[in-house]
Amino acid sequence: MVGIGRFHHCLLSICGSLYLANAISVTSLSLVLPLAQCDFHMTSAHKGVLNGALMTGMVVGSFIWGYVADTKGRRYTLVVSILMDGICNLFSSVSQVYPIFLMCRLLSGFGLSSIPIMYLYLVEFLDAKYRERYLAWMGIFWSIGLIILPCMAWIIMLYPFRIENEYFLFKTWNMLVIICSLPSMLLAFLLTRMPESPKFLLAKGKHDEAIDCLRTMYRWNNKSDDKFPVTCLLQTMPNHVIDKAKSNFFHGLYKSTVELFTSKYKVIAWVVSVILFCSSTSYYMLIMWFPELMNRFQWYETLNKDIQIKKTMCEIVSIVEPNTRIVEKCTDHIDQSVFINIIIIGIVCVLPNIIVPLLANKFGIRFFTVVSFVGSAVSAAWLYFITSSTENLILSCIFEALSGAGIGLVYCIAVDLFPIEYNGMATSIGTMFGKLGALIGNILTGIFIDVNCIVPITFSCLFLIISALLILILPKPGRTNFTI
């Protein structure tokens, strides 16, 4: 009765912008690491730990934000979490020592872990027939974030500066971190102007507030001040959903987790968790290191222009580490071609996120998810055989476009598999497993990238194939029987 229109377009824009800000905040570290490596005296292992700190915050935060979203509200959770990310990023921009920067990124990761809540907030305003298309459009905002970040970094790097005294050092990369923190804080303010999810309000027994929300949506969509025809909503949610927020926080967190994993949805929750663990491990295992790999390729090709015998990527990264092996003096320079390459990757990532929403109703989201995971597995395997920066760029584009789209589509599928009393907790626990995998993947890559890069490549391929196979057996929304 509310219809679809201006309100939902505005809602998609805000939720998508949250996803865009999330993309900038998460991937900014991959550009900051080469720029800050000299100031913090970082080795590859240090970089892996720093990437891992971000993921550790996400692991813990994912578990907690799911419960907060189910008790305090979707909008409340999003405002607090993204504001935390923005503030922590702001503090990290003036960090003078590695441990403080590490702690700020850890807390930033805690705030960034509310990704599934963005999907929940959006889907609970939508009629079932519009959900797949709107959720699929979310992926394009992540891709836009991947384009905006290197553009900002490139512009900032064109005007290097250095402010230094006995106690304080502020350089170009510090300014980049500040700029990356601003979208989160701005969007937190904008989100306070939006209503809470009407489905959540009804689940909490707040009928009048739910009616007010629906009335606002009706007025926006129909561009009319006509009286909303609905005056009363019947309570359809279980009583334990309404009473959940009355528990002690930690007791309620434990109780919600136990309820989920003893319900008829427990197997679905485990399967979704394994899918997100495997796909996120693969994605972050490689994506956070692509700028570093590109930088090493550029170093090698610059210093060996006349050598005819080509080496594979694993051979190159094992002998090239710019800050310690090629030159005695540390360098914090990123070749301009790296920025161009990342922008190209971002543009390529836009393509599947345009195709999927347009064809989602015809082929279904699951079809595109399986295709994405299988295609990215093949591109990851082919990384072992590349011998030039051009080949590296092509495969990086394919891998990031397909695997990133696949992970986004998993969230689209997951938020439709659980009833409201379990939705926040189930998708957040799945995200927790995903970020745990990302943490493990980053540490493994940091350890093996210089000595045996076939290890992260192999694991990446294997996990993507497992994810594709598990997607095939997930039940349809509203059911609990698997399609094995």
Please describe the topology of this protein:
Layout: H1 6-36, H2 44-71, H3 74-92, H4 98-112, H5 115-123, H6 128-157, E1 162-164, E2 169-171, H7 172-191, H8 198-203, H9 207-222, H10 239-243, H11 249-261, H12 266-287, H13 290-303, H14 313-319, H15 322-326, H16 336-363, H17 365-382, H18 389-414, H19 420-448, H20 454-473
Antiparallel strand pairs: 1-2
Helix pairs in contact: 1-5, 1-6, 1-7, 2-3, 2-4, 2-19, 3-4, 3-5, 3-7, 5-19, 6-7, 6-16, 6-18, 12-18, 12-19, 12-20, 13-16, 13-18, 16-17, 16-18, 17-18, 17-20
- Please state roughly what percent of the residues sit in beta strands, choosing from under 5%, 5-15%, 15-25%, 25-35%, 35-45% or over 45%: under 5%
Full CATH superfamily name = MFS general substrate transporter like domains
Domains, number: 1
Helix run count:
20
Distance between the termini: 38 Å
CATH class: Mainly Alpha
Please bin the fraction of helical residues.
over 70%
How are the strands of the largest sheet arranged? Answer: 1-2
Q: What shape does the CA trace take?
A: globular
Rounded average pLDDT? 82
The string of secondary-structure elements, in order, is HHHHHHEEHHHHHHHHHHHHHH
Structural class: mainly alpha
CATH architecture: Up-down Bundle
CATH-derived topology? Growth Hormone, Chain: A
Describe the main β-sheet briefly: 2 strands, antiparallel
Describe the structure.
This protein has 484 residues and is mainly alpha-helical. The chain has one domain (6-194, 238-317, 332-473): Growth Hormone, Chain: A (Up-down Bundle), CATH 1.20.1250. It contains 20 helices and two strands. It has a two-stranded antiparallel sheet. A hairpin with a 4-residue loop joins strand 1 (162-164) and strand 2 (169-171). Helix 3 (74-92) runs antiparallel to helix 4 (98-112) and helix 5 (115-123) packs antiparallel against helix 19 (420-448). The protein starts with 5 loop residues before the first helix and ends in an 11-residue tail after the last helix. Mean pLDDT is 82; it is low at 322-328.
